Amino acid sequence: MSQQSKVAVIGAGVMGEALITALISSGVNPDQITISEKREERAQELIAQYSVKAAPLASNVANAEALLLVVKPQDMASVLDEIKGSINPASVVISFAAGKTISFISNALGTSNPVVRVMPNTPTLVGEGMAAASMGVGVSATQREFILGFLGATGKVIEVSEELQDAVTATSGSGPAYFFAFVEAMVAGAKELGLSDQDATTLTIQTIVGAAKLLDESGKSATTLRENVTSPNGTTAAALASFGSENLNLMVAKAMKAARDRSQELA
């Protein structure tokens, strides 16, 4: 595959749009990207904004060398049934649907097309995503390079064996919601201490953003940075002791296991 390979994007919602942006950023010419989207108004919006094309599902998959399935998990079976008779035999199929296994997709297609399973997350929308890709049987080195290349344009990408995808879902897939819940709790706590809603929100968000940037750019571990800000018997130590008494580590581990288990059930 090359930057001039034809790419079909099936489902052009918010994540589909983020992936279109990533494809273009990684060097794919917009006129090589064709979307299939049920909502005509949405399709026209993306055509105007990104100079991509639109086509009916059957003709789109017949021409594509890479097929991005950005549909809801509950819609996957019907989409696969619709495209199996038209799909280009040389195309790699890349699924972004949570919980849907490579074998589920291969069996539903009934073709020998190689399949790749990807778990993205919502920060992809701002170019700070975390994606984990699992390569199925038959994915060529060129296809793998292409996939990891455009996913890298959405933020960061790692490659994992498929049996770890449920753990990825519990970590980076659902992880942004854990973070947002913690921010909500901090804002509420600040307001309880007397700060206005606006000031509580500003203080919390900038503190979190700054801490994340420090963690990302300092080269130091979270443990080292936590220790650096914690003076013995100081204010931070008092707060962390409270977290410890409520067993924060166990609470987070239990929550992540619950997410992992639910991901396995959805498969």
Q: Based on the structure given, which CATH architecture of the largest domain is correct? A: 3-Layer(aba) Sandwich
Question: Secondary-structure element order, as H and E?
Answer: EHEHEHEHEHEEHEHHHHHH
Number of domains: 2
Q: Which sheet architecture does the biggest sheet show? A: 8 strands, mixed
Give the strand tally.
Answer: 8
GO molecular function, one term: pyrroline-5-carboxylate reductase activity
Protein name: Pyrroline-5-carboxylate reductase
Catalytic activity: L-proline + NADP(+) = (S)-1-pyrroline-5-carboxylate + NADPH + 2 H(+); L-proline + NAD(+) = (S)-1-pyrroline-5-carboxylate + NADH + 2 H(+)
Function: Catalyzes the reduction of 1-pyrroline-5-carboxylate (PCA) to L-proline.
Helices and strands in order:
Blueprint: E1 7-10, H1 14-25, E2 33-36, H2 40-50, E3 53-54, H3 57-63, E4 66-69, H4 76-83, E5 92-95, H5 102-109, E6 115-119, E7 129-135, H6 141-152, E8 155-159, H7 165-173, H8 175-192, H9 197-218, H10 222-229, H11 235-245, H12 248-266
Overview of this structure, please?
The chain has helices spanning 14-25, 40-50, 57-63, 76-83, 102-109, 141-152, 165-173, 175-192, 197-218, 222-229, 235-245, 248-266, and strands at 7-10, 33-36, 53-54, 66-69, 92-95, 115-119, 129-135, 155-159. The protein has an 8-stranded mixed sheet, sandwiched between helices. Helix 2 links the parallel strand 2 and strand 3 (53-54). It is an alpha/beta fold and 267 residues long. The protein has 2 domains: 7-164, 3-Layer(aba) Sandwich (Rossmann fold); 173-266, ProC C-terminal domain-like (ProC C-terminal domain-like fold, Orthogonal Bundle), CATH 1.10.3730.10. It is elongated and about 65 Å long. Helix 7 crosses helix 12 (248-266). The mean pLDDT is 95. Belongs to the pyrroline-5-carboxylate reductase family. It holds the Pfam family P5CR_dimer. Pathway: Amino-acid biosynthesis; L-proline biosynthesis; L-proline from L-glutamate 5-semialdehyde: step 1/1. NADP(+) binds at residues 10-15. The chain crosses the membrane at residues 7-28.
